[in-house]
TrEMBL record:
Residues 95-126 form a coiled coil. One of its GO terms (molecular function) is DNA binding. The keyword Transcription applies. This is GntR family transcriptional regulator. It comes from the Bacteria. It comes from Caldalkalibacillus thermarum (strain TA2.A1). Keywords: Coiled coil, DNA-binding, Transcription, Transcription regulation.
Amino acid sequence: MKREAKLNKQQYAYEVIRSRILNGTYGPGQRIVIDQIAKEVGSSSIPVREAIRQLEADGLIEYKPNSGAVVSTINEQEYLDTLSVLAVMEGYATRISAERIGDQVLNELEELNQQMQKALEEFDFEQFGRLNRAFHEVIYQQCPNQFLLDTIRRAWQRLDSVRRSGFTLVPHRAKHSIEEHAQLISLIRTKAPLEQIEAYAREHKLNTVRAFVNRKPNSSFAYLSSI
């Protein structure tokens, strides 16, 4: 029972810290105060430390000399590198999902893409980002490679912790993302060759990388709700 209670407290601390990182409450580089969190979640410091180790494995927390545990930071080159690797992984994940996708899932994808268009028209870019993530999650629900999905989601988490710290939308990328989604749906519906579907999904992600690189010079490290 003690071990179960300890695990429950550790998991609770993990969820509390993780959610605060992903919603921007804890920004990149911010120190995680273990004693304060332990008091908030009603536990000793041990479950919190173990939760932090788990978050470190997820890439959301890192240790720095003289600071201890802090929210992971990522520079522009690391951001681009992560997106580029995601392009390869998501292209392959889409390929091995495509042959398992039927009309019901395709209709769901079309509905999500229509909702993305509505969110864009209303300039609701947070909703746009949520719908975009849901679009790709629906595809990956058909993916038989769980290790690949776990790796993709960990990379998403790492980027989420950065994107939520006040970045601006890359101009015009959202509109093109919707168009590319429609083309991807068409390729899957018409049973295009799997290598063509993989290449298109990979380019869809790489187009975001290009949009980031080519953004206006005076723009900040940009928020990308369409990745």
